[in-house]
């Protein structure tokens, strides 16, 4: 039940919070790279103080229609942030990337988890992740980020997500990634409509049947906007409800923007689970 994230051990039978740290240019209003590094580090430090076990550093916007980023640009954005957080803070650094070069560089800089929303499907990603010798999160996605929300379609979303993830686990194992180093994620909002997302959340326990820790990310996502009618900046309460449900259903890691608030929600769920 314990996983080794580059020397930091964490019990996956309990629920932990991962703070989102975007280092895309649209996440900063102005300033050069040094200023941006300062801002990113300050945000990370605050999330650690608030109780985050992971900081997920991402330099490529996966928003539908977002401009793609060159490998060099992604490296330039992500590496300095990974390096300074690994060196200065008591936290597991995760890298949100599909780019093999970024996986390899980040591993040298102390990253403890590779988080790939494309499930290591890019050329060279399986090999790079295997060489990094850290746990990997494999997420389900239907289609490509640019077009995935155009017309998501499933015959049985639960079964198809499960089969996709099982197939990627097999591919990862063949590439030399230890199966006990694989975390699975149903990929809320990645090629799914509201009904698909709700079916996956309602049946989250079943994802455990595949025998891996589960990570979920629903923080501020449009599925919560569809349910509540609220804009992205007004979705904290809905995000906390989604986090609480996930924790009750056995998620090991919850990826969120609002760490401090989510920690309290997870504490309540963990306390309830502790008595049964
Ligand atoms: C645009 C679209 C901006 C989507 C940001 C996003 C997940 C993730 C993301 C997730 C894992 C967001 C997403 N979501 N990694 N990275 N699971 N493992 O809303 O659900 O944060 S990016």
Automatic annotation (TrEMBL):
Its EC number is 2.5.1.15. Pathway: Cofactor biosynthesis; tetrahydrofolate biosynthesis; 7,8-dihydrofolate from 2-amino-4-hydroxy-6-hydroxymethyl-7,8-dihydropteridine diphosphate and 4-aminobenzoate: step 1/2. InterPro entries: DHP_synth-like, DHP_synth_dom, Pterin-binding_dom. Residues 15-267 form the Pterin-binding domain. The keyword rRNA-binding does not apply. PROSITE patterns: DHPS_1, PTERIN_BINDING. The keyword Kinase does not apply. It catalyses: (7,8-dihydropterin-6-yl)methyl diphosphate + 4-aminobenzoate = 7,8-dihydropteroate + diphosphate. GO terms for molecular function: dihydropteroate synthase activity. Keywords: Folate biosynthesis, Magnesium, Metal-binding, Transferase. Its cofactor is Mg(2+). Belongs to the DHPS family. NCBIfam families: DHPS (TIGR01496). Catalyzes the condensation of para-aminobenzoate (pABA) with 6-hydroxymethyl-7,8-dihydropterin diphosphate (DHPt-PP) to form 7,8-dihydropteroate (H2Pte), the immediate precursor of folate derivatives. This is Dihydropteroate synthase. The lineage of its organism: Bacteria, Pseudomonadati, Pseudomonadota, Gammaproteobacteria, Pseudomonadales. The gene is folP.
């Amino acid at each position: 039940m314990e996983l080794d994230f580059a020397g930091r051990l964490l019990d996956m039978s309990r629920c932990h919070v991962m703070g989102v740290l975007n280092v895309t240019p649209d996440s900063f209003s102005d300033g050069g790279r040094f200023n941006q590094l300062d801002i990113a580090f300050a945000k990370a430090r605050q999330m650690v103080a608030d109780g985050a076990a992971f900081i997920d550093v991402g330099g490529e916007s996966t928003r539908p229609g977002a401009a793609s980023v060159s490998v060099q640009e992604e490296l330039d954005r992500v590496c300095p942030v990974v390096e300074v957080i690994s060196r200065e803070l008591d936290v597991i650094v995760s890298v949100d990337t599909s780019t093999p070069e970024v996986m390899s560089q980040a591993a040298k800089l102390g990253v403890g988890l590779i988080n790939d929303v494309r499930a290591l499907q890019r050329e060279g990603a399986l090999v790079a992740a295997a060489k990094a010798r850290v746990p990997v999160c494999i997420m389900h996605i239907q289609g490509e980020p640019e077009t995935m929300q155009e017309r998501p379609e499933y015959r049985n979303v639960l079964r198809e997500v499960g089969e996709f993830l099982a197939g990627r686990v097999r591919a990862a194992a063949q590439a030399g990634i230890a199966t006990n180093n694989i975390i699975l994620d149903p990929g809320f909002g990645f090629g799914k409509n509201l009904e698909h997302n709700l079916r996956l959340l309602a049946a989250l326990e079943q994802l455990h049947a595949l025998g891996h820790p589960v990570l979920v990310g629903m923080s501020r996502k449009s599925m919560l906007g569809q349910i509540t009618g609220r804009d992205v900046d007004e979705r904290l309460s809905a995000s906390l409800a989604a986090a609480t449900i996930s924790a009750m259903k056995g998620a090991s890691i919850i990826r969120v923007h609002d760490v401090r608030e989510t920690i309290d929600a997870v504490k309540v769920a963990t306390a309830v689970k502790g008595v049964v």
